[in-house]
Write a structure and sequence with these properties.
- The chain is an all-beta fold and 130 residues long.
- The protein has no helices and 9 strands.
- The protein has one domain: Sandwich (Immunoglobulin-like), CATH 2.60.40.1470.
- The protein is 0% helix and 62% strand.
- A hairpin with a 2-residue loop joins β1 and β2.
- The chain starts with a strand and ends in a 9-residue tail after the last strand.
Length: 130
Amino acid sequence: MYSAITREILVQVEPFFLAEQSEPQDNRFVWAYRVTIENRSDASVRLLSRYWHITDATGRIEEVSGPGVVGEQPELEPGDSYQYTSGCPLPTPSGIMVGRYTMRREDGALFDVEIPAFSLDLPGVRQVLN
């Protein structure tokens, strides 16, 4: 589990390999990742958008951004948490993801929340520092 706290918003990520969706012989490796966002602040916040910086084992970079997560822009009251699962295909057996969420506080202030860097590693294979 990987975690980061920004302005009292906790983000935890748990990646896992999806062997049944992967085709290593065709250089297709698929991971899912479960994200939990917990509002530890004293104000409600809404997740407006996401940004991902994805690097595969060859150093190829893909950037992904868009509104919300999995089609939602969740609002979290103080003490609330929100969890979702998404996925990432890569052409290599390892990679790394890092990113940020843009949030809006109830007073209208915008701020970014760090998504911790996390490693995507094929189970049973020697891990390579990406």
